[in-house]
Amino acid sequence: MSAWEVRLSSSKGLPYFFNTETKQSSWDPPPNLSEEQVRQLPGAKEYLGKPPPVKPSQVRASHLLVKHRGSRRPSSWKEENITRTKEEAIEILRGYQAQIDGSPAKFAELASLHSDCSSHSNGGDLGWFGRGQMQKPFEDAAYGLEVGKISDVISSDSGVHLVLRTG
Fold it and tell me: Which of 62, 63, 71, 76 is catalytic?
């Protein structure tokens, strides 16, 4: 009996092959199985042969957040009590924007050092998310960008952000 099964990738929405004994995974069918054996694997009927989704239901983005005293939670990993005004936060973010100058690498570097979000430890990466999972202004910005592009200053209940669409 084969230890292989077909599963669905939560990040890509595509089927993949997983060996329950070795924990090995692969996008390609196991080479030692015939086409008929692959069709008999657990999960094959549910996940193989379905067309991929027409439009992306999820996007991936990073952000650099600067909170201000009007933010929903005016504290962060670097500052217990944030007292700056929204205008001061925007001014700080504009300075970062000038340094980034469209560079995703510089964006990640500055997000790691300066973002008021816990995602700073991942260069600002928030991972994949769908509609309704983020605050509306942030969601609209992320979905409205092309992959690799950076937004202008976005304001949400969390503070002011620059958003980089990564997927």
Answer: 63
